[in-house]
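Raw record, unedited: Transformation/transcription domain-associated protein-like
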Amino acid sequence: ARSDERILQLFRMMNQMFEKHKESRRRHICIHTPIIIPVWSQVRMVEDDLMYSTFLEVYENHCSRNDREADLPITYFKEQLNQAISGQISPEAVVDLRLQAYNEITKNLVNDNIFSQYMYKTLPSGNHTWAFKKQFAIQLALSSFMSYMLQIGGRSPNKILFAKNTGKIFQTDFHPAYDANGLIEFNEPVPFRLTRNMQAFFSHGVEGLIVSSMCAAAQAVASPKVRIYRTNT
């Protein structure tokens, strides 16, 4: 719970930086910071909204609608890597085997339009879809930027919540992991989460709004003219 409090304090300070920087202020860049009340060391109450959903719920909804097991991609991937676990193939061939299994899963089990279909059926009109995409792209850019800057991994679909009416994003367990020496432990090859479904939903927004928002956020944080002063309230 203390880690969540410190992360939210950091986010609020960074929102002040975004407010003081011209490019981030022009794009209305602001990290969503819900209210969190710690109860005791391992328990906290988080501000909730009925419109919040996770990417895991979107995927499970798709599997339920198509009468398919949600764990089928994981089961298939493990079955394909049984040869690597038993030592039947060389370590060099494991990478090719993993890539082949991934391609089969994306081709036959998990389409790249699952999230798009869900949102198009949820949002009532084209105006709502445009507003949602814009806000969701900014929030995803900030989330990716923070994941890269703080070296935060483990961004599984059940840990990413988004508001279906506003596009705001909130991530649970969003804090760095430390090893026995007190150093940040980060072993993931990709520093943030940008999946095929997200890219298909945004189409050209990845190279447009997401990239520009990430650059504006980085400029605001690195700008030598921005100073945050601690004030007592």
